Amino acid sequence: MRVPFVAGNWKMNKTIEEARSLVSSMSAGLRAVAGVEKVLCPPFMSLQTVAALLEGSDIGLGAQNMHWEEKGAFTGEVSPAMVRELCRYVILGHSERRTYFGDTDETVNKKIRAAQAFDLTPILCVGETLDEYESNKTAGVVARQIRLGLAGVTPEFVARLVIAYEPIWAIGTGKASSGGNADKVVANVIRAALSELFGTPAAQAVRVLYGGSVTAANASEFFSQPEIDGALVGGASLKSDEFIAITQAAARP
After folding, report:
1. What's the pLDDT tens digit per position in 194-253?
2. Cα–Cα distance, 108 to 105 (Å, whole number)
3. In-domain check, residue 226
4. Between 138-149 and 191-198, two packed helices, what is the crossing angle to 10 degrees?
5. CATH number of the domain that 80 lies in?
6. Which of 42, 44, 136, 224 lies at a C-alpha separation of 20 to 30 Å from 71?
7. Cβ contact 95:171 at 8 Å
8. So what's the pLDDT on residue 210?
9. Domain that holds residue 160
10. How far from chain centre, in Å, is Cα 137?
């Protein structure tokens, strides 16, 4: 059985001191939730501070992005070797990186393969725009992102990665997908594409999350779906009580 997984993507929010305060306010509540893998993904500036606060707990730490090269003349970038010093996880291919910073399926694939080389667990984000959704292109877009994003990756590594289905039209808009619709995309598109590439056992081992306006009020709708294994949470992860409640909802009865 796949272990539920809930990650908080803080995006470009919280100073170091604010990060310290937020982690301190939610740490005990998150530790009390058993049977759920929990991960916090603060900005790069706060990773070392948060790592120290989480030491000895069962709460994981993730970065929000990384470059694919180990080192070099890439001003402003952070390498997988640097991320690996503090983190086990890294978010790759988030729609905001694709939309605003030029990430493509090909560059996301380079980052995925770098994560494999540096023993990092990537949270690969896939999802369609509103135009693509309304034009019934969801299946083609998401399958392409899976196929190109995971090119050259081994089945053994795929079984340990995490995929987040985040319809772009639902991210930060307050307009979440329905649980049933998201579950169909996960089952009929994401797991189907994974099965074609790596075989059914590997596809069934992958945890697939939903992301896009997840709140404590709607989390159970997604977590009750058979193919959805948790959530990649944005704005609600900045609110201690809200994020704890979402994590509690992910715990299996």
Report:
1. 999 999 999 999 999 999 999 999 999 999 999 999 999 999 999 999 999 999 999 987
2. 5
3. yes
4. 40
5. 3.20.20.70
6. 42
7. yes
8. 96
9. 61-233
10. 22
Quick one: the chain helix, strand, coil %, rounded to 5? Answer: 50, 15, 35
Q: Which pLDDT does position 143 carry in this prediction?
A: 98
**Is 90 exceeded by the pLDDT of residue 110?**
yes
Q: Is residue 158 part of a domain?
A: yes
Q: Are 161 and 124 in contact (CB under 8 A)?
A: yes
- How many domains is the chain built from? 1
Catalytic residues: 94, 166
Burial degree of 201 (CB within 10 A; 0-12, 13-18, 19+): exposed
pTM: predicted TM-score of the whole model, two decimal places: 0.97
**Contact at 8 Å (CB) between 251 and 35?**
yes
CA dihedral 214, 6, 41, 85 (to 10 degrees): -170
The residues, ordered by sequence, that sit 6+ positions from 158 with a Cβ below 8 Å of its Cβ are 150, 194, 197, 198, 202, 206
Shortest CA distance to 127 belongs to which of 169, 66, 183? 169
Percent of the chain with pLDDT over 90: 94
Q: Is residue 193 part of a domain?
A: yes
Confirm whether 97 is domain-assigned.
yes
DSSP states of 39-83 = EEE--GGGHHHHHHHHTTSSEEEEES---SSSSSS-TT---HHHH
Is the pLDDT reported for residue 170 higher than 90? no
Determine phi and psi for 78, rounding to 5 degrees.
-125, 130
